[in-house]
Amino acid sequence: MGQKPYPYPILVVDDEPAILEVMTVNLERRGYTVKTAQTGREALAMAEETRHAAIILDYSLPDMNGFQLLAELKKKDSETIIIMITAYGTIGMAVEAMKAGAYNYLSKPINYDEMGALVDRAVEHHRLLTELWQTRSELQDNYELDNIVGQSRKMQKVYEKVKTVAESDATVLIRGETGTGKELIARAIHRHSARRNRNFVGVNCAAIPETLLEAELFGYEKGAFTGAVAQKMGKFERANGGTIYLDEIGEISLSVQAKLLRVLQEGELDRMGGQETITVDTRTIATTNRDLEKAIQENQFRSDLFYRLNVIPIYLPSLRERKEDIPLLVNHFIRRFNRKNGKEIKNISPSVMAALMHYEWPGNVRELENIIERSVVLSAKDRLDEIELPHTRNNGHLTIGGLETSFHDSKKKVIESFETHYLSNVMKKHKGNISAAAKEAGLDYKNFHNKLKKYKIKRRTFEE
């Protein structure tokens, strides 16, 4: 029985018309559209004009050898699926073809049943790669909020909360580990609020000495202390009508906490050395990576201030808690640093992606961002084939390249990541209707349902 027609043709390159004819007939019987070329230059011209599901090429061509053509084709598109025909079962040539980037090889005399099965696998590989990157591109729009990227259920809940609380003036406390993106969330809340056209004023409470933090927040009058040669407006006044962002709120002293509590409760403050009470209208968003409840027990943080700050709590999960977002984040950062550095990196090798999925990410999204930026800047190829990760056993670095993880393990990880993203996306589109989602996916109901169970994707998650 013939295969389901595939939108991209197969290109067969051989200088013998009789072989081209036999190969074409056999592939067309399997449902494929077939194009042919008799020289390397002709094949390159056709590859320039048309995308092919797979290219089968003979080693011996009149104008160049198969390895030269393979290299030129890979320059144009590193993901081109190439099957090399090698001479009379020469093992050395077959190995060289695989090292040069061939998907697989066929030996003369050609077994056409073997050829058909190999092309089927190659086309399926091409289809998976195509759908993976298309889906990631589509997910980028669905699963990105002001540069906050994530399709996991935990991040979707964060997005929903951001959109809901942005419309109010309620104080927000964002909690999470360092590097999870707390400031991005704070800025997103401001940008989606009615205050979006007013100031967003940030203060890193941990970076300012205690003796200066009060002056920074509330301002001071001329002569309030040595060096106060002129009046200075504080951050709360600068944020009047807008939003003030207090980063690492858990690090402020008890004396500053008392004055901060007054601003939050009454909307009033006094500049240092001043006699006049100043009224301000600011929306406060605070963040912390500290256990504030424990700090309260240890008398290092005021409970009344905590309750005033914790009106709307938002918890940002660590990257370890949402590893399914890693492929999406990687794609996002590659695109960003391509633009920034004038690069054209198209994708990442399966072995490197598998390494990223296994790493524990103590520095969270910020660490992933830095590693991808470094890799993009240093890469001389259009694919990230190796990456440097911290190596905890010796506190050094471990370079992950294309051969450190087995092909099958790497392939399994990429496929699982793609299927999880795709199934979640199509279920969301159809609001949990498995029959409709399965139909769009081109899978029978039972197979689709089994995949949902395999990846623990719950139907009720998508029901309205």
Structural account:
This protein folds into 4 domains: 10-132, 3-Layer(aba) Sandwich (Rossmann fold); 152-315, 3-Layer(aba) Sandwich (Rossmann fold); 319-405, Helicase, Ruva Protein, domain 3 (Orthogonal Bundle), CATH 1.10.8; 408-462, Orthogonal Bundle (Arc Repressor Mutant, subunit A). The protein has a 5-stranded parallel beta sheet with strand order 2-1-3-4-5, sandwiched between helices. Strands 9-10-13-8-14 form a 5-stranded parallel beta sheet. A two-stranded antiparallel sheet has the order 6-7. It contains 18 helices and 18 strands. The two termini are 42 Å apart. It is elongated. It is an alpha/beta fold and 464 residues long. The model is unreliable at 137-143 (pLDDT under 50). The protein has helices at residues 17-29, 40-49, 66-76, 91-99, 112-142, 153-166, 182-191, 210-218, 235-238, 254-266, 292-297, 303-309, 326-341, 350-358, 364-378, 407-429, 434-441, 445-454, and strands at residues 10-13, 34-37, 54-58, 82-86, 104-107, 144-145, 148-149, 172-175, 200-204, 243-247, 268-270, 277-279, 283-288, 312-315, 347-348, 383-384, 387-391, 396-400.
Short description:
Helix content is 47%, strand content 15%. By secondary structure, it is α/β, with parallel strands linked by helices.
